[in-house]
Design a protein that fits this description.
Elements (H helix, E strand, L loop, with lengths): L2 H24 L8 E5 L5 H10 L3 E4 L2 H10 L4 E4 L8 H7 L2 E5 L2 H13 L4 E7 L15 H8 L5 E8 L7 H22 L5 E3 L6 H6 L4 E4 L1 H4 L7
Parallel strand pairs: 1-2, 1-8, 2-3, 3-4, 4-5, 5-6, 6-7
């Protein structure tokens, strides 16, 4: 155990938690629960152990090969898969993860549901939306979400809990705000039109999560702001 690193992480976590509460107070929504998902793809098992000791309860990974050892070592964590999923990796991901943030096609939803049912579990799923409009990013276009959401209701092994989006990598705060607001508005419209409960909005990362929280995020995916280790650029 690296006690110095554990203290660093604990201090960073407290600062993020305090900032979240200050933002929620500012926007008049102090009771909203914002879940911090610590992105652990850059660190190993020992560092994840320090995160757990510091109080982290949710962790996110985007590649099964990299995640495997950590997921198997720390089953007490709520594990979130936050990257694109190859269909041949859907079975182990369904087995070991609690949340899937990156469903963007019917075939993947079908696979995850089938494997989850075989395991006697129901996966929490978010539909990924391309809110930036960038062709290199995964996700449904906003106008495609309603159709997939309707189709996914037939799957018994997954529960659609909300939407996920990745904003443009930019310092333009207004653009970020517009993209996060797009996701929130889309979620609200889907709830109203389909009569569904979609409580989760996974949006915001280390550089832009304050704006995401202002616009309604319930999950933020934090990497280097939490896990940066002195002497190691993440």
């Amino acid at each position: 155990m690296d006690e110095r690193y554990q203290l660093q992480v604990r201090d960073r976590l407290k600062k993020v938690q305090l900032e979240i509460q200050q933002i929620l107070d500012k926007v008049g929504d102090p009771e909203r629960n914002v879940r911090i998902v610590a992105v652990t793809k850059y660190i190993g098992v020992d560092e994840v152990r320090d995160l757990v000791q510091a109080g982290i309860t949710d962790a996110g990974e985007n590649r099964w090969q990299v995640a495997r050892a950590k997921v198997e070592e720390f089953p007490q964590l709520q594990w979130h898969f936050i990257g694109p999923i190859q269909r041949n990796k859907a079975r182990p991901i369904a087995r070991h993860f609690d949340w899937i943030h990156s469903v963007d096609r019917w075939e993947l939803a079908e696979d995850l549901s089938k494997f989850a049912q075989e395991l006697g579990k129901r996966l929490n799923v978010l539909l990924q939306v391309n809110i930036s409009g960038e062709s290199q990013k995964s996700g449904l276009m906003p106008e495609e979400v309603a159709s997939l959401l309707k189709d996914c209701n037939e799957f018994r092994g997954i529960a659609i809990k909300g939407l996920m989006g990745i904003a443009t990598n930019t310092d333009n705060g207004e653009r970020l705000r517009q993209e996060f607001r797009l996701l929130r508005t889309l979620r609200d419209d889907l709830q109203n039109s389909a009569g569904l409960h979609l409580p989760e909005l996974s949006m915001g990362m280390s550089e832009d999560y304050p704006i995401a929280i202002e616009e309604g995020a319930t999950m933020i995916r934090i990497g280097r702001k939490l896990v940066l280790k002195e002497g190691l650029a993440l």
